Amino acid sequence: PFDHPKADIILRSSDYVYFRVFRLFLSLASPFFEAMFELPQPSVHDSGDEIKDGLVVIPVTEDSRTLDHLLRFCYPSTLAEDPNLEDLTDVVQVSEAARKYSLELIEKKVGNALGNQAILEKEPFRAFAVACGSRMEDETRTAARYTLRHPLMPPKVKELELITAVDLRQLLHYHAKCADAVQTLTSLSWMEYHYRATGDRWLTDVYHYGEHCDCPRTNKYRFKDNSTPPDWWAEYMDATWIALRDRPSGTTVL
């Protein structure tokens, strides 16, 4: 959509890709562009600016990928659909450009992309830092939940510079509280109740449906009736509690 022959200005990206655009669309979307285009413009021949196809070329610092995404948000949907941002780097760069050019509504739209599951599953800590740094409360909470799928100490990512030490401490505290909450399940009373309520007693009974179970039993876990589970089950639960302490999320045991 950025090669229309009737466009009245050209934007040039940092990697020298030319975008033929309409001043009207940019002015309606951005007070920044509106103010810039209202300034007295010298004639094409006297401006000293780069001229291409008879139009003034305005260089911008964004690369062509970022500029393409940004302009699609500025254009009417009948001419260009909003881009589907599934890469966090794109989200960060387009968000920064939207903030730079006073595109508040577009900045909010871009922020909504932080709720994209593909982004959250791949880079939850970066998503958290971007959302928290932009004070997007809902997106921050969602990203924080996804960080539970990873160890407590976040990886070193550039976006952590966007948040304060207090923000990081709150995230670590949230992670630790969730880990503590999971450990309350080690009492196993909830599990014992479940199996007794369903009539399925393989976990606690040596005899199951009239058949003798030769599985070695452990004394490490003992239920209220003094029955004990199989060794293999105890080993699995030991590994599960350790894993959940580090990554207190349901996905850890799936």
UniProtKB/TrEMBL annotation:
SMART domains: BTB. Residues 7-83 form the BTB domain. This is BTB domain-containing protein. It comes from Serpula lacrymans var. lacrymans (strain S7.9) (Dry rot fungus).
